[in-house]
Specification:
Elements: H1 2-23, H2 40-69, H3 85-95, E1 100-103, E2 113-116, H4 121-139, E3 145-147, E4 154-156, H5 167-176, H6 178-224
Antiparallel strand pairs: 1-2, 3-4
């Protein structure tokens, strides 16, 4: 069972990695977010993602607190935790610009879907992006759409703890962060102190060797006399 779970975990991670690569490709859904300058509508869609992430974070924290406190014998659940209403209002205001129509189809197609009038490639991308984001939120995966801490490019997180779009940004961020600089300063301070101690020990060693050699030479001269 443990081996099977590990295989499923590995398979899921590989699938997420494929999705991540596809989303940031030149024609991927996240590519327009990483191009500059942004149009007004693109800025609104970025705001939509940030708002949905905030809503998800508030509701997830509330659910986790409720789960932990539920173990207490005298605790009464207060019900689901909701984000402030203005967050939902702003998200729906941004979504109101999308003009969709619901559609149903015979099997084996999806039981329902949406269609829209996309006059340009730009509007087609916008609708696909919104549909993708809403599906992520429905699955509880909206937090996987993140902005890199180093370059601020948007990416799809393969793991829960991923905060950078790639290894290069991760290494650059940590090498220039205040925490890294402080650790580097303390390390160099300790390194210089050790180097100074080594130099002092070596000088003492050389001095003792010179004195020993001088005594040996003096003793040799005394014997030859």
């Amino acid at each position: 069972m443990r081996l099977q779970n590990r295989k499923l975990h590995t398979r899921g991670r590989e699938k997420r990695r494929e999705i991540a690569v596809a989303l940031v490709s030149s024609d991927g859904l996240l590519a327009p977010l990483n191009r500059r300058p942004h149009s007004r509508r693109t800025r609104e869609l970025v705001e939509l993602v940030r708002t949905l992430r905030k809503i998800d974070r508030i509701e997830s924290v509330g659910a986790e607190v409720d789960r932990q406190l539920s173990q207490e014998p005298n605790y009464e659940a207060l019900g689901p935790s909701h984000a402030p209403s203005h967050m939902y209002a702003r998200a729906n205001e941004i979504l109101s610009a999308c003009q969709w129509s619901p559609r149903v189809a015979r099997p084996p197609n999806e039981p329902y879907s949406f269609t829209w009038s996309a006059r340009t490639a730009r509007s087609d991308w916008e609708n696909n992006f919104v549909l993708f984001v809403l599906n992520l939120r429905a699955r509880g995966d909206i937090s996987r759409i993140r902005s890199c801490r180093n370059c601020e490019h948007w990416f799809y997180a393969v793991t829960n703890h991923q905060t950078h779009c790639g290894d290069r940004c991760r290494q650059h961020f940590h090498s220039t962060s205040a925490v890294f600089k402080e650790k580097r300063r303390l390390y160099m301070k300790k390194y210089r102190r050790l180097e100074k101690a080594r130099d002092l020990t070596f000088k003492r060693f050389l001095g003792s060797e010179r004195r020993r050699k001088a005594k040996s030479e003096e003793k040799t001269k005394h014997i030859t006399r």
